[in-house]
Write a structure and sequence with these properties.
- The protein is mostly beta strands and 711 residues long.
- The protein has 4 helices and 42 strands.
- It has one domain: Maltoporin, Chain A (Beta Barrel).
- The longest helix is centred in the first third of the chain and has 27 residues, at 2-28.
- 42% of the residues are buried.
């Protein structure tokens, strides 16, 4: 623990020195003032839109988020081009999602390449897998906005953000009263509400959600409960404090994978005869205090501190993955605790007669697992615990310094320069072996740059560069790198992007972005050896396009987006059956080449409305090696061209608004009842089986919305 204490002492000295420098800088008041007040800037909670203008980030507003059916809340990000979500089909189990070929959510093999913040609190944890992201605690009704940031373009995000970041901001005030009641197929019940009240001094917001589903497969029920509260008190016109509290509880059973061995009954694979099998429980509590002080009309000083605690339990009946005498599965249990704080100085005004925005911040995050345990389960006895097979504790610290300046060189040209410096270090103890280990002291400098050119009122042209990193794995499973044997370096990602936004008329807008991402020190999970292995360098390039049509003369609208992705290995040799297979130039697996979304709707304020939503995901592959070599022979059951079936989905919504207060909605998802799989695994040897989790069939939902907002 000595290095953690030393890091904390260093951090406190730095933050104290920075505070003195900032105060001195403020007192000197070098910049000209104007009469406009600077909006509150909440680092990692609410990024200024100016910072995103030189990127292709998608910003979803509340009206884009609500009134849609989500199997899991993470579904909402599929509205952004180049993004897709892969569910395990196991109720409360976190899905995998992908932004520009980088995955986040469930998988921890590559260190978790996408992170998410909810009101400034990081949602990723490292207990089940590195960067595990459970979005079940998100209540769509309470979201004011969701920023979907592509690649490492933003200076505000470091660890778990090399592939992108999701920043969700909730409603903080107003005089709102909203209630939604939903019932759907498979006994799907959702009750959610939002109450907000605001006076001259105090703003308070409360949100709640209760959810249950039996699931469309046997033994796949899911229950979850959410509650959040936010209180903002304005002591003076210049000084305010906000307290956020959040509680989340989730419990589920999971049907698991289905085996396709012809001689085996499907249900035998997911039920050990006890009536219990896969499933899990999660309980999480968050608290955050945010204080903001306006130094003057142009400058503000902000401070935040947060803490979170999580209890996670996961049961898995998987005899193929953990074969052992007397063992047929596992129980994984971990308690994850983290806390963080940050100090920020922000300026928005003029420097040398030019519009200028600056941010300087220092942050610190500490997290620990106390403990992380794994037990065997005994076949036929449900969740009865067997032998303890893992018992570890670990600590991780991450101090950061970041800064950014945006300067208007010309009336039509703005330049953005930024950088962050991250320090990562940790230790872990294996209580079964008595061994302890410390990670290397990882240091990483991330430069950022962006240009925004506005030659015409309706035309914006932007370009940006960003460097980011991912750790090689924080979960000390075999060969994971960060703690186990430290054979992997930080994975580096460099993104180059250029694009344009066009507000052609009042009713027509479009956007087009081209990007290229180079990586080095990558890792990947080799299915043949069942270990994490170096993947060398990779290259991702593509385009993303979107169009929105909303005629001002009627209530019809149309919107669409499309992405093309080409992801390849540059230097990577896959070891299979004792042989090395060169993968240079081959496509990377589990990344669709084409993704398209189309939506056509009719939306009058009062009366009958409706929309049709279409989605396509095409040209995808399961695995990365061209063939598996067994005893020197090619195994025909695992060819490289293991193509995933192209997916097309059609969703329908009809609604009727009676007045300002009441609306009823009928949703039909997967109208064509397409039979797909969420996730699929191929055999590892002749005689092994092909396993999959089926996609949700056609489903129906009826929703009553009640809105008594005071205007």
């Amino acid at each position: 623990m000595r290095f953690l204490k030393n890091s904390l002492y260093r951090y406190l000295v730095i933050i104290f020195s920075l505070s003195l420098m900032t105060l001195g800088f403020l007192i000197s008041n070098l910049w000209a003032q104007d009469e406009s007040l600077l909006n509150v800037i909440d680092i990692k909670g609410s990024i200024r839109r100016e910072e995103l203008q030189s990127t292709s980030a998608t910003v979803l507003r509340n009206e884009d988020i609500v009134n849609k059916i989500y199997y899991q809340p993470l579904d909402m990000i599929k509205q952004s081009p180049g993004v897709f979500v892969t569910f395990y089909g196991e109720s409360g189990v976190a899905p995998v999602f992908n932004i520009r070929g980088f995955s986040g959510g469930h998988h921890g093999v590559s260190g978790g390449d996408v992170n998410m913040f909810l009101d400034g609190i990081p949602m990723n944890d490292n207990g089940h897998t590195t960067g595990y992201l459970d979005t079940g605690m998100i209540m769509p009704m309470e979201l004011e906005s969701l920023e979907i940031i592509k690649g490492p373009s933003s200076v505000y995000y470091g660890q778990h953000a090399a592939g992108g970041s999701l920043a969700a901001q909730t409603i903080k005030g107003g005089n709102l009263t909203r209630l939604s009641l939903r019932y759907g197929s498979y006994n799907d019940i959702n009750v959610s509400g939002l109450i907000a009240r605001e006076s001259e001094k105090l703003a308070q917001v409360y949100a709640f959600e209760g959810f249950h589903t039996d699931g469309f497969r046997d033994n796949s029920d899911w229950d979850k409960k959410n509650f959040s509260g936010r209180w903002t008190y304005k002591f003076t016109n210049d000084f305010s404090v906000m307290l956020n509290l959040r509680a989340y509880q989730s419990e589920w059973n999971s049907a698991g994978y289905i085996s396709k061995i012809k001689s085996q009954n499907d249900r035998d694979w997911v039920n050990d005869g006890s009536g219990q099998g896969n499933g899990g429980e999660r309980e999480r509590y968050d608290a955050r205090l945010f204080a903001n002080y306006f130094i003057n009309d142009e400058q503000q000083l902000s401070f935040y501190v947060y803490g979170t605690t999580l209890d996670h339990v996961r049961y898995q009946i998987t005899p193929d993955l953990w074969p052992a005498p007397g063992g047929s599965g596992t129980k994984q249990a971990n308690t994850h605790k983290s806390w963080g704080m940050g100090l920020t100085h922000s300026f928005k005004g003029e420097l040398a007669g030019r519009a200028t925005t600056t941010t300087l911040a220092i942050t610190y995050m500490f997290e620990k697992e106390v403990p992380n345990k794994r037990y065997r389960l005994t076949w036929g006895q449900g969740r009865k615990l067997g032998a303890l097979t893992r018992h570890i504790t670990y600590n991780l610290s991450n101090p950061t310094i970041l800064g950014e300046i945006s300067y208007q060189i010309l009336e039509s040209l703005n330049v953005r320069l930024g950088a962050r410096y991250d320090l990562l270090e940790g230790d872990y103890t294996d209580h079964l072996t008595g061994q302890s280990s410390s990670s290397p002291k990882y240091k990483f400098f991330s430069p950022k740059a962006g240009l925004l050119f506005t030659p015409l009122d309706w035309l914006q042209i932007y370009a940006n560069y960003g460097r980011g990193f991912s750790s090689p794995g924080l979960n000390p499973d075999a060969n994971m790198g960060f703690y186990a044997d430290n054979q992997f370096d930080l994975m580096v990602r460099d993104q180059y992007e250029v694009g344009t936004r066009m507000d052609i008329t009042d009713w027509l807008s479009a956007e087009l972005a081209f990007f290229k991402i180079f990586t080095k020190n990558d890792t990947t999970f080799d299915e043949d050896s069942q270990t994490t292995v170096p993947a060398g360098k990779t290259e991702r390039q593509g385009l993303e396009a979107s169009i929105n049509v909303k005629p001002t003369t009627n209530d019809w609208y149309f919107k669409a987006n499309y992405s093309l992705m080409d992801a390849k290995y540059k230097t990577y040799s896959s070891s299979s059956g004792g042989s090395s297979i060169k993968m240079d130039g081959r496509r990377m697996p589990n990344i669709p080449r084409h993704i398209a979304n189309l939506e056509l709707g009719y939306a009058p304020y009062i009366g009958l409305a409706g929309r049709l939503s279409f989605r396509y995901e095409g040209s995808n592959y399961f695995r990365d090696t061209p063939s598996q070599l067994i005893s020197g022979a090619v195994n025909p059951i695992r060819p490289y061209v293991a193509k995933v079936k192209d997916k097309t989905f059609l969703d329908l919504q009809l609604s009727y608004r009676f007045n300002d207060n009441y609306r009823i909605l009928l949703d039909v998802n997967n109208v064509l009842n397409k039979k797909y799989v969420y996730l699929s695994t191929y055999p590892t040897a002749p005689g092994d089986d092909y396993r999959f989790a089926p996609y949700q069939p056609i489903t129906f939902y009826l929703t009553l919305e009640m809105n008594w907002d005071k205007k």
